[in-house]
């Protein structure tokens, strides 16, 4: 204790700071950084969890890039992204824009839109899976049948299954995006609108010339955030296709599901690790590209 | 004519500014806007509503389109809960989400506070290192975590499920942002009063960032309550499952008994919905704070 008392105030601060940080630094080192390095390392090895690890250089990567299933999965992952992000952002902006102008029962409406965000993806995947069942089980097809429209094959069709799985993922994220958009809209100074009004600018021009440009930081954040979400889609796909994960015929399989199956069904750890490295690179490149493209404009 | 124009502009800009009257929609446009938004809102909650309505139906009624059950029953809930597994999964989920939330609230704020209020060698490196982990997707870490858990015997244990989430870079960053709003003078004054640094953090700084702590707690709890991929990987005995993992395996096994699956889904959804309905304003504010600052 005498030793501590002899320290200067600044030295005492250093001691306190590192005392506070000791456990967290250990945690980040062991639970975040070491596994990251380990994943990259394993991606250059051949290992089935039981036998020996053998170095194989870039074999896992060359096998992956020659695998038609991987390219199918890669394409699916981007279809989730390219459909999911624009659709969810447009819908949530339109709702937020109008909700912002509605005072009557505002809080109640906002609650209705936000409620799905509080649900669990697994639970809702099962609810939607039931909706999609054929007649006489599924809600959607029963509703169609009651008005005489022929039933739609949702989850067993190679073309319909992916959008059908995407729908609940978009639905669950809307509440969050609407709330963030509304906060962004509130942050725009009202004097801008007032000035535009006095100059006789139309509502449409106000939207394009004032609202959207000033909302850019919010839009950039939501684009990057929701893109990462769609690129990592897993819970919905897995639970809506448990009888044949990623099916039919890999039509709905995203990269994360392929990683899960390679690692924990086939126990091909090296190959799975190589896929996780690809996922990491994809996420990084997409986020950086979006930040660059959206910021510069 | 000019006067009329001015009045019109004033009136319309007023409507724009206030977004209509608080007493009720003023004109047809606003009524239509309200009705469309209302219809959209009903569509948004429809899946949740149908889930709950179906969980209250008898099997013979499940495939009818009617929303209100003819003879509501809690038979499905008794059946699912008497089975015992859902009860266990519920307890597991509560325990794991609670412990993880408490750990995050403590450690994320401690680290955020240290990085914000202390000057020491290595501060910048630690900050950048923690921030950079935001870019690493969980999916890249699950394989090494699994290998680690296997080596240390953590598979199929509570510790195994919760160790990856004890601290988050997102939470640390969020708390650091909020500690910036705590004036240094307060901390200086506490130091002069003879409080040690741990006491200053806990009794002076923490109470000043309560809203941020609440926002963090909500995010971490919800995230762990609904977490799926890691609990799916690390658990293998039915008793250790969390609610999402349990529901997933139950759904597969119950196959066609949709009213039972809906009951399980309702059990894993209703608690967060109730919490939301009680703390609605608070949670929405927290989400905005976390979303914009984090």
Summarize the helices and strands and which ones pair or pack:
The complex is a heterodimer of chains A (297) and B (294).
Chain A: H1 2-5, H2 9-42, E1 45-46, E2 54-55, H3 59-66, H4 68-100, H5 106-114, H6 121-131, H7 139-146, H8 161-186, H9 190-198, H10 203-214, H11 216-231, H12 235-240, H13 255-264, H14 269-296
Antiparallel strand pairs in A: 1-2
Chain B: H1 2-18, H2 28-55, H3 75-82, H4 85-117, H5 123-132, H6 138-152, H7 158-162, H8 169-179, H9 184-192, H10 197-208, H11 210-226, H12 229-234, H13 243-254, H14 258-278, H15 280-293
The low-pLDDT segments of chain A are: none
How many helices of chain A in DSSP terms? 14
Distance between the termini of chain B: 52 Å
Q: What top-tier CATH class of the largest domain in chain B fits best?
A: Mainly Alpha
For the record, the CATH architecture of the largest domain in chain B stands as: Orthogonal Bundle
Q: State the secondary-structure class of chain B.
A: mainly alpha
Largest interface (CB < 8 Å): A-B, 101 and 102 residues
Rounded to an integer in angstroms, the radius of gyration calculated over CA atoms of chain B is: 25 Å
Order of helices and strands of chain A: HHEEHHHHHHHHHHHH
- Per CATH, the superfamily of the largest domain in chain B is MetI-like
Number of domains of chain B: 2
Structure description:
The complex is a heterodimer of chains A (297) and B (294). Chain A is mainly alpha-helical and 297 residues long. Chain A has 2 domains: 2-42, no CATH class; 66-296, MetI-like fold (Orthogonal Bundle). Chain A contains 14 helices and 2 strands; from the N terminus they run H-H-E-E-H-H-H-H-H-H-H-H-H-H-H-H. Chain A has helices at 2-5, 9-42, 59-66, 68-100, 106-114, 121-131, 139-146, 161-186, 190-198, 203-214, 216-231, 235-240, 255-264, 269-296; strands at residues 45-46, 54-55. In chain A, a hairpin with a 7-residue loop joins strand 1 and strand 2. In chain A, helix 3 (59-66) packs across helix 14, helix 8 (161-186) packs antiparallel against helix 11 (216-231) and helix 11 packs antiparallel against helix 14. The radius of gyration of chain A is 25 Å and the shape is globular. Chain A starts with a helix and ends with a helix. Chain B starts with a helix and ends with a helix. Chain B has 294 residues and is mostly helical. Chain B has 2 domains: 25-73, no CATH class; 83-293, MetI-like fold, CATH 1.10.3720. The longest helix of chain B has 33 residues, at 85-117. Chain B contains 15 helices and no strands. Chains A and B meet through helix 2, helix 4, helix 5, helix 6 and helix 7 of A and helix 1, helix 2, helix 4, helix 5 and helix 6 of B.
């Amino acid at each position: 204790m005498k030793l501590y008392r002899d320290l200067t105030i600044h030295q005492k601060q250093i001691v306190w700071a590192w005392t506070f940080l000791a456990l967290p630094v250990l945690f980040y080192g062991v639970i975040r950084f070491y596994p990251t390095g380990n994943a990259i390392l394993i991606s250059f090895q051949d290992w089935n969890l039981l036998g020996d690890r053998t170095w194989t250089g870039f074999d896992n990567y060359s096998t992956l890039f020659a695998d038609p299933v991987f390219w199918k999965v890669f394409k699916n992952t981007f279809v989730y992204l390219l459909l999911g992000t624009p659709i969810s952002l447009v819908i949530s902006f339109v709702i937020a824009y109008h909700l912002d102008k509605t005072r009557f029962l505002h809080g109640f409406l906002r609650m209705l839109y936000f409620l799905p965000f509080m649900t669990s993806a697994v639970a809702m995947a099962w609810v939607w899976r039931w909706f999609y069942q054929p007649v006489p089980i599924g809600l959607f097809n029963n509703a169609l049948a009651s008005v005489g429209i022929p039933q739609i094959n949702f989850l067993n069709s190679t073309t319909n299954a992916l959008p059908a799985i995407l729908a609940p993922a978009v639905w669950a994220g809307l509440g969050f995006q609407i709330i963030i958009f509304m906060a962004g809209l509130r942050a725009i100074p009202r004097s801008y609108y007032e000035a535009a009004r006095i100059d006789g600018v139309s509502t449409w021009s106000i939207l394009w010339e004032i609202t959207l440009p000033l909302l850019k930081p919010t839009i950039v954040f939501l684009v990057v955030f929701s893109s990462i979400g769609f690129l990592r889609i897993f819970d919905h796909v897995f639970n809506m296709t448990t009888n044949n994960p990623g099916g039919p015929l890999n039509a709905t399989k995203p990269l994360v599901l392929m990683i899960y199956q390679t690692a924990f069904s086939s126990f091909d750890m090296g190959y799975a690790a190589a896929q996780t490295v690809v996922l990491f690179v994809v996420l990084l490149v997409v986020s950086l590209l979006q930040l660059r493209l959206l910021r510069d404009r | 004519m000019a006067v009329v124009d001015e009045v019109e502009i004033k009136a319309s800009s007023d409507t724009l500014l206030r977004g209509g009257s608080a007493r009720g929609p003023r004109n047809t446009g606003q009524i239509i806007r309200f009705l469309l938004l209302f219809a959209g809102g009903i569509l948004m909650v429809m899946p949740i509503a149908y889930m709950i309505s179906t969980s209250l139906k008898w099997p013979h009624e499940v495939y009818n389109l009617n929303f209100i059950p003819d003879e509501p029953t809690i038979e499905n809930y008794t059946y699912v809960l008497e089975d015992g597994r859902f009860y266990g999964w519920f307890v597991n989920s509560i325990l794991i989400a609670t412990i993880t939330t408490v750990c995050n609230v403590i450690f994320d704020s401690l680290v955020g506070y240290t990085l914000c209020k202390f000057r020491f060698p290595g501060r910048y490196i630690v900050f950048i290192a923690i921030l950079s982990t935001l870019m690493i997707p969980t999916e890249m870490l699950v394989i090494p975590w699994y290998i680690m858990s296997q080596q240390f015997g953590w598979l199929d244990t509570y510790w195994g499920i919760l160790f990856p989430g004890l601290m988050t870079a997102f939470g640390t960053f969020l708390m650091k942002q909020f500690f910036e709003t705590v004036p240094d003078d307060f901390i200086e004054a506490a130091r002069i009063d003879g409080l040690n640094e741990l006491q200053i953090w806990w009794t002076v700084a923490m109470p000043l960032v309560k809203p941020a702590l609440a926002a963090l707690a909500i995010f971490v709890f919800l995230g762990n309550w609904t977490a799926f991929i890691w609990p799916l990987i690390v658990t293998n005995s039915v008793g250790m499952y969390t609610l999402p993992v349990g529901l997933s395996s139950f759904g597969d096994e119950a196959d066609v008994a949709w009213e039972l699956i809906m009951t399980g889904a309702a059990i894993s959804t209703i608690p967060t919905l109730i919490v939301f309905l009680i703390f609605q304003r608070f949670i929405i504010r927290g989400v905005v704070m976390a979303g914009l600052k984090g």
